[in-house]
Amino acid sequence: MYELLIPVDQDAERASHQADYVTSLPGTDEVKATVLHVTPREESSRGEQRFDDVDSAVRVAEQIEAAGISVDRVADAGTVTNRIVEYADDIDAAEIVLGGRKRSGVAKVLVGSVAQDVIYSTDRPVVITG
C-alpha cells in the first residue's frame, strides 16, 4: 500500500490541487490517503475543531474517495509543521502532498513557511502542488 499524507489548510483552491494530484496517480487501487487538518496551537485554545468543520478538508476527502481511494480523515491541533511531520512518521507516509501558494516575481522561488519547514524537517518526499 502506498500511503500519502495530505495536510490541508482552509484554502479550498490549494486543497483542490492536492486532491487533483492524488487522484491522477497511477494505480490508485494501491493508494491510501490520510487527509490531515492541523489547527495551529494559538487557535486551538478557542475550542476543538472537528474535521467536518473544515470545508476544504471535507472536499478533498470526498474528491479522493470519489476516485476510489481509501481516505482517513484526521483533525489535530498543535504546531502545524511538527504535527505534519509526526503524523507522516506515525503512518509511515511514502509522500507528503502539500498545497503551494501562488506567488509572483522573485517570491515564486519561495514556498510558504509551513511547506518550507516541512521540507527541512522530514526525510520523506514532499510534493508541492498548485
Automatic annotation (TrEMBL):
Signal peptide extent: none
Domain spans labelled UspA: 4-128
Pfam families from the UniProt entry: Usp
Coiled coil: none
Family, as annotated: Belongs to the universal stress protein A family.
Name of the protein: Universal stress protein
Organism annotation: Haloarcula nitratireducens
Organism taxonomic ancestry: Archaea, Methanobacteriati, Methanobacteriota, Stenosarchaea group, Halobacteria
